[in-house]
Amino acid sequence: MTTADQQKCYAAAMRMLVRREHSVFELTQKLSTKEFEQDDIEASIETLIEQNYQSDDRFSADFIQMRFNQGKGPIKISVDLKQRGITQFDLSDYDFYTLARQIRERKFGQEAPSDFTQKAKQQRFLQSRGFNFEHISESFKTA
Fold first, then answer.
1. Residue 53 region, left (φ>0) first, then alpha (ψ -120 to 50), else beta?
2. Cα 76 to Cα 56, 59, 95, 141, distances in angstroms
3. Fold entry, domain 96-139
4. What's the N-to-C CA distance of the chain in angstroms?
5. Backbone angles phi, psi at 6, to 5 degrees
6. Residues of 37-70 as b/e, b for ≥16 C-beta within 10 angstroms?
7. Do domains 4-54 and 96-139 have the same CATH topology?
8. Tell me, what's the pLDDT at 83?
9. What CATH code is assigned to 4-54?
10. Are 13 and 76 in contact (CB under 8 A)?
11. DSSP labels, 100-138
């Protein structure tokens, strides 16, 4: 039988999940800041998983798609997922080479940079977006 505190914890977690997907790690952190007991948090999250209201797989798929649509590279996406407690994920379905080229062209135009300074500036920009060296190098090649 669940306690009143456990029911409150479950309800709080459910309100969070109604707004958007959360990882188990995120839910645990947020519920802890609301000063729920760890046992209540674990029991509530376990129930949510059993009811399929919470899924780390679903969270990571949605998160990857969102960040990809924002023009973020695989390094940034991986770091962000790990900060949210997700260690197992698959980025192989995403074409980061094309994305890097599209992002570079949208920001700087289709022409390849003519001097080293401009190329370095564009490389730093793509690097800050989380693209690796291969993606950045390919983004400068024209079809």
1. alpha
2. 18, 16, 15, 23
3. Arc Repressor Mutant, subunit A (1.10.10)
4. 64
5. -65, -40
6. eeebbbbbbebbeeeebbbbeebbeebbeebbee
7. yes
8. 97
9. 1.10.10.10
10. no
11. HHHHHHHHH-SSPPSSHHHHHHHHHHHHHTT--HHHHHH
Decide: 17 and 54 in contact? Cβ < 8 Å: yes
Q: How far is CA 106 from the centre of its chain?
A: 22
C-alpha span between 133 and 7 (Å, rounded) = 49
pLDDT tens per residue across span 10-68: 999 999 999 999 999 999 999 999 989 999 999 999 999 999 999 999 999 999 999 99
* Residue 1, pLDDT above cutoff 50: no
Question: Do the beta carbons of residue 26 and residue 86 sit within 8 Å?
Answer: no
Does pLDDT of 74 surpass 70?
A: yes
Which two tokens mark 81? Answer: 């997922």
Q: What CA–CA distance (Å, rounded) separates 108 from 61?
A: 30
Indicate the domain borders of the chain.
4-54, 96-139
Query: Quick one: tokens of 78?
Result: 């991986």
